[in-house]
């Protein structure tokens, strides 16, 4: 702001350059004051730090501790015996866990991909809308704004085998009553549909924000170079959107991997254990079976896997971005 | 920064260790001494109770609380509303109890909980506080599920018994008797379905939940096939077990039961029946009240109740899973004496009579069912309950949830046609064995 003003207009009393260090009253060297300022900073930050450690750091560490421990509930409390890796051995070798991992992983890959493609498409359409954009956006965001459990319950009614609207519709089309949530493939498909319906708006709005940040001159340059719509999208828009898409994908991986409410309300993990996600398995292990150590081990392994997935994704993304930059 | 992060970690671990050692248990003897005396000083109890089905308006739990407070004027009971779904309810109450919370003092829990809750110190063992002949007044199956290794962890409150509900009008139209065997039920249902008088023949519960385990336990008992043998090892084999599993498949294969039964919980099956879409329904006794309610049921006045059929031959008929709800005492309660007194009051005559008159459930105290009041209520499930043959689920293990899961997931595959009865039984046997050894998740 002021730097753009011509130097000659500046008042003579305030020369350009950094302001001189004014001597402070009764002050020692600058280091001491910096230390004191740091101390004040810590003092102000300490309530927040305490709260964060109480609600985040402590529970996470405690949960990791429990995953190694032999926990025994007792009258008036609990005791922790030997620390071993037994729970991990039990979890990793159990067919339930492998099944849950497979479902959760598949669900994550399919929904994130679908949501990314559909969300980007929706964002591209939204960007072209003029005055109507606000309204369309509001309507589009409705599913996202709904509480997960409510959305799942709504779809549960639609899929219901007796009076569900979708069941009826399929019955008219196919001639027989389909058993949407009663067969593994269709139950998984139904769950993907609900998640895509619910979460695509989130991806759309994130990508839309990215689109609006792309400066207009790159498009002008592309036009001058004679690039068509398709080429412009692949060579200009998409590379520019990459960072923000990466954020959307990371968010989605984290959420999809922890999916609980959809299968819990729609199928309780069934049919059989076809839609039992890792989160549901952890819940059942901990709260239904009261296997505290094993439940904690399920939770910890899930966290490790999802963090690894995110780091791997970031690394691949960064490598690709670097390559793209060099090309 | 690195240093302070390390400090934080160390602090958290130290706090964890402190919490661990600070939560050491209390000796049982001290608790039982406290529990043996009803306090003379004022006390307030919290009772964790899900909604008890009401027959005629008043909130049943409130009536019982008021009756108790009249007897013990210095003890005040506060209601804490529990969830209605059993599994969610268990998760909610165990979270509180495992955290050593002194409330709720008394909690209403499922009859499948005692072994698991007792083993995990979430329920006070009550046998030393009960008179020797306490159980003589209650169904034997209820005693079997309330005890684990000689300790009593739950006091009876009310039972859920399974019945066969049927459409009187449709049977009359086709000149059919109430079926006494499954084979007969299949024939009758198909006749009525073919005539276009009902979309579904027989409705029951096949979703992956405890409801399906109850149905499986009943079919197995019909075929005289036990889940566990006398030594507590997995049995579940032989022609009886296959007959039971094959029957479940036959229902869906022939279309007598819709294939969507694989997703049916109790409410779904009941909705289909009260909506007029089915001929027969297997459900708990409370379904009578809903089926007879003219504002909620299209078939009110046209519904009959009978014991469940059995297989052709000389096997048992009228088998019913011993379901129901009992009161447990929280060992961390600050008013153990008052809590035990309240749980015992709920199992006693006065409270049981209130249940008989005002609740749509079957009181646990068998004696009240013989009273003239029982006939006056006009609920056929109350008068016919003594014809039933109650069977317990294999709950005598702290790993019952895993055993139940093995049964319901494998049976669900048979219903959906994804496994043959033989395959499902083999898989269920393996799963139950893993569960009983404590190796299942």
TrEMBL record, chain B:
Transmembrane segments annotated in the record for this chain: none
The keyword Signal belongs to this UniProt entry's keyword annotation: yes
UniProt xrefs under Pfam families: SBP_bac_1
Keyword rRNA-binding: no
Gene3D superfamilies from the UniProt entry: Periplasmic binding protein-like II
Alphabetically ordered keywords of this record: Signal, Transport
Protein family per UniProt: Belongs to the bacterial solute-binding protein 1 family.
Name listed for the protein in its UniProt record: ABC transporter substrate-binding protein
UniProt source species: Streptomyces angustmyceticus
